[in-house]
Amino acid sequence: MTRKLSIPLDDEPNELVKRYEQFLEGRGPGYFDVEELETIVDFYLHKGKTKESSTALELGFRLHPGNNSLQIKRAKIYLIADEVQKATRLLESVNDAGNYELILLKVEAFLKSGRNNEALSLSRNLFENEVDDIDNISLDLAYIFITQLNFEIALNFLKKGDAFNNKNIDLLFELAFCYEQMIEFTKAIETYNRIINIDAYASEAWFNLGQIYFSMQDFQNAIDAYDFVLTINPDDVLTSLQKAHAHFQLSQYDEALEAYNEYDKVAFDPFQSNLFIGECYEKMERFDDAILYYEKSLKLKPDNYDALTGIGICLLEKEMYVESLNYIRQALLLQADAPDAWVYLAEGLTGLDDLENALSAYLKSISLEPDQPDTLMAIANIYMDKNEHKTALEYYSSAYSLDNTLEYIDFLMAVAFFKLGNLASTKFHINKAFALSNDAKSLFLEVCPDADMSALID
Q1: Which of 214, 224, 353, 443 has the most CB atoms less than 10 A away?
Q2: pTM (2 decimals)?
């Protein structure tokens, strides 16, 4: 699940880093003590600039040869570069048993080397003589286990820290995240609400809460959470987009359309926002408007499968089958293994009464994605038109096994069974069809005029 950072990052280098960079440019003094060099190395690591970190570290070794603290920073760089063996050897050679960062790096190195028991033992040792900073130690350890995707152990450390200090917001964010990863959404929701109770303006907590509700398909609660984010920060583009998606999922197309149009004003990917707007209009059956926005998206990104199929669908709805097939075939050139596109192709061909080619397209779609009850029923209908009742029944049965609530499925199966002379199965399905529709009897007699309805109706 998408998470926003719980702590904003400061992108401005501090005075120390400025002084260091001036030295590199030959415009300043070149002496830095060990602590200053550690700060510089960590600054660049935090920015993901491993090469710059290594350069600063080499200066450190020239100024302070063999310094343990700088050796630890070298091991940290090795770990970031995934040179685990080098890092482990170096960490085990450093004689500074009480160094907190050394222990954390050893835990990370041991985990990456598969030495899990040693990592856990070292982790637990950190708490032995500590009484004042349990929550932050727990959080530091949890970060390490989270990066290794060991959420259960991370969760145990976080619970320990939470028991010590239940107001540590950074810890609560990671606790909620672990619950999310372990699909314990109720506990994640409770944890984000705890953050909000501490700081009602914690927009990240509101956003993450909305994301959980969205993943649970509780779209109204998701919208409520997103509204709180937008109250705090009206310019939050990502939240505006998520809110639009939630309205769309609730079939609230007017609200979704308004939100998508607002997003479109600031979108970095307008081809995508035009797709969203087009789909809204499509759902509202405003097909000309939908086509207009799909075409805008297609103009911005010509190899746009979604825009091509979107236009194709709208043209199908307008019964412009020849024009529709042109777009759908272009879409298939981009994604020949897309089951949906083969269905759209089949529907267009059906509209042109080209049933043999439509059947081939439907069968291609089923070969790519077998579990399509509507497509299976469409295939069966074509076989029924061809009077191949046995084959039709096979496809009706497959569709029925996937979804026995399909409209007319019992009626159609009753007809197929009757054509094959299976009166017991005909009776079963025709009575289910009668229970769903008062018109079933007259329709059945139209298709099967020789049926003895008194023998079939309970």
Answers
A1: 214
A2: 0.76
